[in-house]
Amino acid sequence: MFKISSVAEARRELQGASLDVDAFIQLVNDLLPRYLAPDSAEKAAVSVRLARYFQTNGLLDEPFKEGREARYGARHVLQLLAVRRLMANGYSTGSLSDLLRGASDDALQRLIEGETPRVETSTPPSAETASNEALDFLAQIRRRSAIMPAPSPVSAPPPPTPPQPPAPPSSSSWTRTQIGQGIEVQVGDDFQAPQSPHEWDALIEAFKEVVRPLSQGIMRKRRR
After folding, report:
1. In this predicted model, what pLDDT tens digit does every residue of 164-194 receive, in sequence order?
2. Same domain, 176 and 137
3. Residues forming a β-bridge with 161
4. Sign, Cα dihedral of 170, 172, 177, 182
5. Into how many domains does the chain fold?
6. Nearest 5°: phi and psi at 38?
7. Between the CA of residue 4 and those of 8, 26, 204, what are the distances in Å?
């Protein structure tokens, strides 16, 4: 496949052409480091399954069909890059449908290249403020998660008297609670709860970024 190094080249080179799903995903992943910081680009890498999830949720157009094969063009590349860039900036999948619905190819390119998106509401100033608060809150969550110790593996069989895990230095007291089968969370007494829906969205996205690679590692171990 011809070498494409920017969204502008993708729009030009894919005029009248299309890619199979593997080439489509590879091209998007190759372009991500151009528009995201290295650590964000690595976390934002997409898979066929994730692309289909975005498609199901209306963030990605239906692919073209050549016989029974799905094919993807320049607009699909723009849409998927815009989704990953905005999610890296703290936007949830729920808010993206309002931002991207009906967006032109030119608008998608501007978003990818760094334009700050605007959400149309009845009170634009407060929406802009809430958006900035959400981004700031996500940055705080990521800074906190960077210094959190990795969870200790559970030995099998467990010892008769399990030792209590040491409290991280950033908090004097921690509360542990199970939120589902095989998963629990710890909340420190210095935790600042989100104060708006945007902050809750940012916290949920940060949680997903931490849990997703852990769950993938567990699944790989089970298959061995």
Report:
1. 555 444 445 878 887 777 788 787 776 777 6
2. yes
3. none
4. positive
5. 2
6. -50, -45
7. 9, 11, 34
